[in-house]
């Protein structure tokens, strides 16, 4: 199978996501929960530079954060899974620059894995069929299929892997708050399920019933915006509640926890208001990190890496 020349290099930015809505539905026979979520990509990005080398195997250098051993890194696992499906004999050297905090509900690791799969497909289009790439992604994590696609706004169902790409909404700005606490995803699902069992609360219905119900404007999103994790996660971690309150005090269109946290965000339809809000949130809540971000209509394209 022919492929790129030894020494070929590509670069891609791997964006974070926020969940504009996140509804946790019933527990599936697999033990995982079905969910319904609106993923939105934002321009807070890691970046990946990948070089084809003669020696087989995947070498990884991580800059900017310690995200654990290379063998466990989602980039390496994604690359190995793709290589295992092909008969290519070359290897890869990857430089990953982290800006998205790990394990924050912003999907950074999942995005890095999706970016890796997009780079490999750019070099050898279709060498691993799209369906199989999505399956590799889903095995690595529920958010990875979103990051192997194209769209910036996607409705995810199932574990997140059944995706409906949606037309982009008008540009918007986000104040993203990153409290310095770690929320483990498994226990967060457990706490939510126990809370529902104790209150004998019914599993809530999905928010979107068919595509006609999908929001076409930010006020429509604001009227639906919710995250089922927010009460249990913000309740258990006061720094998250404090960061959310600091953002809400700036009157965003809406503000939410992202994923299972700890990151939170407020969405603004006005750039100046968002810029003022990020300054105010930093002043009011110096113990958390706050960054300004923008919505992305599409995932960033794979491009040649410079010399
Ligand atoms: C909450 C979400 C929403 O987008 O995002 P993040 O907070 O990670 O960004 C995802 O569902 C995160 O899915 P994923 O990244 O696959 O979760 P993992 O850490 O692999 O799962 C840890 C544990 O959480 C539980 N789990 C996870 C996903 C799911 N749909 N149902 C579950 O019950 C399972 O017990 C699993 O063993
Ligand atoms: N490339 C990577 N970047 C960040 N974390 C990674 C990466 N590869 C593996 N991990 C592991 O995956 C976990 C979840 O990462 P991430 O996708 O950033 O968070 P979340 O699922 O909360 O959005 C991290 O705690 C880390 O141990």
UniProtKB/TrEMBL annotation:
GO MF, one annotated term: 4-(cytidine 5'-diphospho)-2-C-methyl-D-erythritol kinase activity
Residues bound to ATP: 101-111
Ranges where the GHMP kinase C-terminal domain occurs: 219-286
Keyword entries, A-Z: ATP-binding, Isoprene biosynthesis, Kinase, Nucleotide-binding, Transferase
Reactions catalysed according to its record: 4-CDP-2-C-methyl-D-erythritol + ATP = 4-CDP-2-C-methyl-D-erythritol 2-phosphate + ADP + H(+)
The UniProt record lists the keyword Glycoprotein: no
Domain GHMP kinase N-terminal per the UniProt entry, residue ranges: 73-148
Keyword Kinase assigned: yes
InterPro entries assigned to the protein according to its UniProt record, in alphabetical order: GHMP_kinase_C_dom, GHMP_kinase_C_sf, GHMP_kinase_N_dom, IspE, Ribosomal_Su5_D2-typ_SF, Ribsml_uS5_D2-typ_fold_subgr
EC code(s) of this entry: 2.7.1.148
Matching SUPFAM superfamilies: GHMP Kinase, C-terminal domain (SSF55060), Ribosomal protein S5 domain 2-like (SSF54211)
Pathway participation: Isoprenoid biosynthesis; isopentenyl diphosphate biosynthesis via DXP pathway; isopentenyl diphosphate from 1-deoxy-D-xylulose 5-phosphate: step 3/6
Catalytic machinery residues: 17, 143
Enzyme class at the top of the EC tree: transferase
Assigned protein family: Belongs to the GHMP kinase family. IspE subfamily.
Protein task: Catalyzes the phosphorylation of the position 2 hydroxy group of 4-diphosphocytidyl-2C-methyl-D-erythritol.
Matching PANTHER family: 4-DIPHOSPHOCYTIDYL-2-C-METHYL-D-ERYTHRITOL KINASE, CHLOROPLASTIC
Protein name, per record: 4-diphosphocytidyl-2-C-methyl-D-erythritol kinase
Source lineage: Bacteria, Pseudomonadati, Gemmatimonadota, Longimicrobiia, Gaopeijiales
